[in-house]
Amino acid sequence: MGTTRNVDMSSQEVKVKKVTAPAGTTEETPVEDEKAAKTPAKPRKIHVRSQKYTAIKSKVDRNRKYDALSAVELIKQLSYAKFGGTVTADVEVISTDVTAEVTLPHLTGKQQKVVIADDTILKQIEAGQLDFDVLVSSPQFMPKLAKYARILGPKGLMPNPKNGTLSPNPERAVKELAAGKQIIKTEKKQPLMHISLGKTSTETKALIENLRALYSPLKNKVISITISSTMSPGVKIDTETL
């Protein structure tokens, strides 16, 4: 004959909270959920500009498009970095698939080491010695480079025709790239380009000529151009003056 077990539920206390559900029904919600609901959300961090930046920003008329000369001179005055600031052009274009070949007539302060792929360079790559900024190759040499695609690809060093580094005449390509030629393109998700024009110490005339060289191949695709220097607000350019 079976026996009956009496279970004392009084010793097992389960905490629940009655909450009102749709259509007048009720649900039981564990206390843990209630605690989670009461946990305050982390406050959003607000970026506060320095008083110096705010004072400098007040010198720029946000509703005005400056002529090229006035814009460059103003940017040089606004830069307050303790080191040599870089002057950058932010270009908004009509779509995210815009590319252009640009050769700036004046050096931007960044010297690039450009080399041609050969057996000596391959040995350096294999040894992990990537002592160059740009690698140029002929189509005939690419099968040898393919072995090192995993090393060169992530660093943006794999030659390809889109940026002018894969050429049937690599010697000429090296001269052009060393002279400042570059293939510029938009960001992947936004129709924006960011190009260095030089340093704040660069002569105003040279910066303007670099700006014009940048604008020329993009002329019919540009929506707006804004220039700025390191740690300065942007200044809009009147493209009619370029």
Tell me the helix content: 25-40%
Please indicate the count of domains: 2
Distance between the termini: 104 Å
Which secondary-structure class do the elements indicate?
alpha+beta
CATH topology of the largest domain, anyone?
A: Ribulose 1,5 Bisphosphate Carboxylase/Oxygenase
Put simply, the count of helices is 8
> How many runs of DSSP E, i.e. beta strands?
10
Provide the β-strand percentage band: 15-25%
Sheet of most strands: 4 strands, antiparallel
The arrangement of helices and strands along the chain is EEHHHEEEHEHHHEEHEE
How would you sum up this structure, described in words?
There is one protein chain. The N and C termini lie far apart (104 Å). The chain is an alpha+beta fold. The chain has helices at 31-38, 51-57, 68-78, 119-126, 142-145, 149-152, 170-178, 204-215; strands at 16-20, 26-30, 86-93, 99-103, 114-116, 134-136, 181-185, 192-199, 222-229, 235-236. Residues 6-19 and 25-29 have low confidence and may be disordered. The strands form 4 sheets. The chain has a 4-stranded antiparallel sheet with strand order 8-3-9-10, covered by helices on one side. The chain is globular. α3 packs across α8 (204-215).
